[in-house]
Amino acid sequence: MPVLHDEIPDDGDFDADRKRGEFDHITPEDFVSGADNPPGWLGSADIDRARHQLPIAYVEIVPVRTNEFGQIEQVGSLLRMCEDGAIERTLITGRVLFHESLREAIARNIAKDLGELALPMIPVSLQPFTVAEFFPTPGVSEFYDARQHAISLCYVIPIAGDCKPRDETLDVEWVAPSNVVLDQFISQMPNGHGRIVRQALAWAGSQS
Amino acid sequence: MPVLHDEIPDDGDFDADRKRGEFDHITPEDFVSGADNPPGWLGSADIDRARHQLPIAYVEIVPVRTNEFGQIEQVGSLLRMCEDGAIERTLITGRVLFHESLREAIARNIAKDLGELALPMIPVSLQPFTVAEFFPTPGVSEFYDARQHAISLCYVIPIAGDCKPRDETLDVEWVAPSNVVLDQFISQMPNGHGRIVRQALAWAGSQS
Amino acid sequence: MPVLHDEIPDDGDFDADRKRGEFDHITPEDFVSGADNPPGWLGSADIDRARHQLPIAYVEIVPVRTNEFGQIEQVGSLLRMCEDGAIERTLITGRVLFHESLREAIARNIAKDLGELALPMIPVSLQPFTVAEFFPTPGVSEFYDARQHAISLCYVIPIAGDCKPRDETLDVEWVAPSNVVLDQFISQMPNGHGRIVRQALAWAGSQS
Amino acid sequence: MPVLHDEIPDDGDFDADRKRGEFDHITPEDFVSGADNPPGWLGSADIDRARHQLPIAYVEIVPVRTNEFGQIEQVGSLLRMCEDGAIERTLITGRVLFHESLREAIARNIAKDLGELALPMIPVSLQPFTVAEFFPTPGVSEFYDARQHAISLCYVIPIAGDCKPRDETLDVEWVAPSNVVLDQFISQMPNGHGRIVRQALAWAGSQS
Questions:
Q1: Which of A102, B53, C134, D48 lies in disulfide reach of C145, CB 3.0 to 4.6 Å?
Q2: Rounded Cα gap, residues A21 and C128, in angstroms
């Protein structure tokens, strides 16, 4: 599948045959500027087959605004256009690519959804606050993904810069943990993503 | 690939088309007794292709013996027969199968290496103490796996029962964290597995 | 303050002048049998003064029953007789004594509330799932303790044995995380202890 | 004990009778500018008595420089003048004051040692990477503190700003985790503080 200039590789893109090192000096900006898009993204047939054969590694990010003491002042959620035209509320989530490190995957997915000036403060340790297991069968757990079995490493990441939603992301909305609107937002996040927000706030010690 | 009676599915086996729920009442003993071996293990061609296309989700377990206060008294390591006939020292490690939960994967891999009477005390939270990223290119990180890009969720798991090494696992050796032999054992674990032992002991607050 | 035979040292007891090593071979049973009660418990005047002068280190334990995969099947809570004769629902909580290790404090407080046959499975790492800060001023945080500023390291601890409530603890009640009764129990735990149960379940990945 | 203008309250200062809320709008700068020094610091007799009666709650901070991916690029250590005139290498460490939150204690102690422009990035969760237990008896654990039994919550904190060592802190030295000099620095940190650096790097997944 050819990747066009200035196009962000999306979740169905692929990455075989890419050699280690090609990502070494790539910053989120490189993914945006397009000229240095990583080679080797595969067609959708391959990723579709893999999705029915083995668990897919994901990162899922709860974006937050913090004060100078590290306390969460606002929790972010994304409004996104689905393939069927509906709008859904969700978090930042994406597949880890072949030969991509978790830190690269986190930076790339944040840049993809929030733009290149978001200035994420990626944590010192990659110990996730939880691991969410999404199964393709509804009802067996609180986490459901029709496409695949996904193992998602979940992180809370403070965003220090400016957000410019991109591509299918229509808007980023921020709300204080103590605001009653948060309950409404969480209830709008389907398939367990709202639960991940609650787990994040519990882990952070935020009132919610 | 047919799975024979009493055979433990190995790392190259596969699991497509297995429905959620087939593992629901399966205990490690089921994997051992053979009559209820999960259906759907795939041939090695599929898993080999996937290994060159996307990261593979793994669990890696540092088995320990603890005292009544939860302190590590002994760290276990496995002596295993490699395919080329050499013997290597390693930890308990295995792929997460399609539609298998992390807790099932942990229990299955421990039963596979230590036998069905090991009585692992799987922790209440699946927050791993570290996530080890193995790349198929030597030298780019401390973790190397020639076969694949593996994302390995690492856990320290107390073993309360009796260990009977099985299959390619020749022996399980236990040593106290304070014993100088541990340094020797760690140096014998290649490709970063020894480093995972050190990280486990640091996280547990054990002297080493 | 003299400590009588078979009496469990309570929260107002003290421990000055005790030498390191006196606890080394003490198991929870020793605290119960009485003959080996640690020396040096101080009078209540000293502990009262300290409570108004500096933060007091505590451990707080959410007792759980787990299945063979480590999943929480039941959460425990204590019914306790208050000094004023009222009955309150609470968790296992107690001060860390001078020269006592955290592991000793955890074992001692569990034995004190659940009896000597509770068989707690103290975790390999003492990294708490949260740190609750109780302040003596109502309303400033979700955690309130009229007596003191307490810094409480919180742990989820599986109980493998039999519970015999002791002293002021009247009963231990167990309920499944998915049971609607849990919400009622949590609402009965005042001063933030119910919130600690919610944080524990979120960290453990339990449905609640 | 009177606290003079522009003086940083030191570890022997005290805090009784301070009301909750007096710290609410206090930033590290307030501690520095002096005019708003918190009231209620006690004399050394009281703190000395408490140190022999019960465990003292501490925070201990490993300052680091990170890159845009959150990886540790440098680890900081302090050179400090001891009371006897000797120079020792250490970390940022300090007592939590009465009615002071952990986040306030972290910010205050960093400002005290690194100055008011250090811009620490205090983490979203106060789950410490380890809890170090210092006992006043040499040899019983790897952590020793002649003055007291201290329970120290340990954090790795990225420093984004400029450091101006203050008071008894003579200098802050930074070294890359992969630099052989780090081993030398660690060996110069007595009483277990070097071990905390190793635990921090293991938890962060840094090579060392």
A1: C134
A2: 38
List, for residues D146-176, the tens digit of each pLDDT value.
999 999 999 999 999 999 998 788 999 999 9
Mean pLDDT of A180-193: 95
The SS3 of residue D90 is strand
- Coil, strand or helix at A173: strand
Judged by CB atoms closer than 8 Å, whether chains meet at B69 and C104 is answered as yes
Query: Are B199 and D203 a contacting pair at CB < 8 A?
Result: yes
Tokens encoding D199: 């635990």
State whether D102 and C131 contact (CB < 8 Å). Answer: yes
Distance CA C165, CA C171 (A): 6
Neighbouring chains of D at 3+ CB pairs within 8 Å?
A, B, C
The confidence score (pLDDT) of residue D141 equals 84
Residue whose entry in the numeric block shows the structure tokens 């607050």: B205
What is the torsional sign of CA B14, B19, B22, B24? positive
CB burial of residue D84 (10 Å; 0-12, 13-18, 19+):
exposed
Nearest to D106 by CA among D91, D124, D90, D94: D94
Domain boundaries, chain A: 25-204
Buried b (16+ CB within 10 A) or exposed e, B131-169: bbbbbbeeeebbbebeebbbbbbbbbbbbeeebeeeebb
Q: Which of D46, D51, D56, D98 best probes binding to C when mutated, by most C CB atoms within 10 angstroms?
A: D98
Q: Which one-letter DSSP state was computed for residue B95? A: E
Q: Least CB-CB distance to B202: which of D131, D199, D207?
A: D199
CB distance B128 to B78 below 8 Å: no
User: What was the ipTM of the complex prediction?
Assistant: 0.81
Q: Which CATH architecture has domain C25-204?
A: Alpha-Beta Complex (3.90)
Tokens read off for A151: 């193992």
Q: What is the pTM of this model?
A: 0.84
- The answer to whether residue A55 scores a pLDDT higher than 90 is yes
